[in-house]
Amino acid sequence: MSEIDKELSAQGQPNDFRIVVLASGRGSNLNALMQRQRPDNYQIAAVLSDKPQAPALALARAAGIPAMAIDWPDRIRGEADLRRMLRQLQPDLIVLAGFMRILSEPTVTPWIGRMINIHPSLLPLYPGLHTHQRALADNRKEHGASVHFVTPVLDGGPIISQTRLHIRPDDTAESLAERLLPQEHRLLATTVAWLRSGAVQLTDSQVMYNGTPLQKPLVVP
Ligand code: GRF
After folding, report:
1. How crowded is the C-beta side of 2, counted as CA atoms within 13 Å?
2. 88 CA to middle of ligand 1, Å?
């Protein structure tokens, strides 16, 4: 049982909204969610990674959150292990926060509407890798990040929310990534809070916001 769990149970308020975070790297987006567990009334039930050495796992363990490496010798076996863990954990929401594997249909389909991803571009622009370089190469004036429901199409599921920033003439891929990161953290935490409260839902492939079909992504500054 994690510290937050113990504390909530001690207060007689066991938290019943359980989130599993999947992360491959440093885990700064995970950290942003960890900070919001109590105010936004959810519990990070586990952190899973395809990389046993991922700093995200260490970050979770240090906070008393169960953190496990997925056995990932290849895609077939990796996804089978991931599916097994998710079936056991039965989360209310799965958050891909810097998870660098493409998930296939059998893994994604059972969780449609309950699995989201943060992607560092203004989707549908630049799915896949190297988004900052590609925005610069195209002389874009604006860049940003998106949170979307996960479907079997890479970075292609229904978009929930976005954050935008202006590209400066002297920006590099590194400076863009650095300036975007704190905005990503706010974007992800805010979007998770909307999902937790039920304000955002996926109904028949349509993102609903407060019961109304969302016409364009919600904007988080
Ligand atoms: C973020 O830029 C996220 O958008 C991308 O990978 C990065 C993960 O960073 N998918 P962190 O591991 O959360 O610090």
Report:
1. 24
2. 26
